[in-house]
């Protein structure tokens, strides 16, 4: 089996695990938007920044914002820096909705980290970061 096929198979096996299916919500859809805003330094983000960070269209961001706003998981406020723009912030309800999902992911990776040990965990994180950097530069 070629190196590329081995890599595809290993990543495929990893992505089939239940924990990774649970993690998918952090990179796509409503939870991804909530998590991105939660992680931001200012605890608020513009739709433009959300679109850029999630790699989705502004139209998709607008649909997510409308849905999350209807569910009262976010607030929308006019930007103080640019009155033509607005910022998205989590509501207390949004934070209550997001926290258990974060805690579940943290608990899972805490166990994985304990089972691997600090040294292997550090190596794994380093390899993941390196793969991310390499893959960002690859176009086919």
Automatic annotation (TrEMBL):
Pfam families: MarR_2. PROSITE patterns: HTH_MARR_2. GO terms for molecular function: DNA-binding transcription factor activity. Residues 1-133 form the HTH marR-type domain. One of its GO terms (biological process) is response to stress. This is Winged helix-turn-helix transcriptional regulator. It comes from Candidatus Pelethenecus faecipullorum. The lineage of its organism: Bacteria, Bacillati, Mycoplasmatota, Mollicutes, Candidatus Pelethenecus.
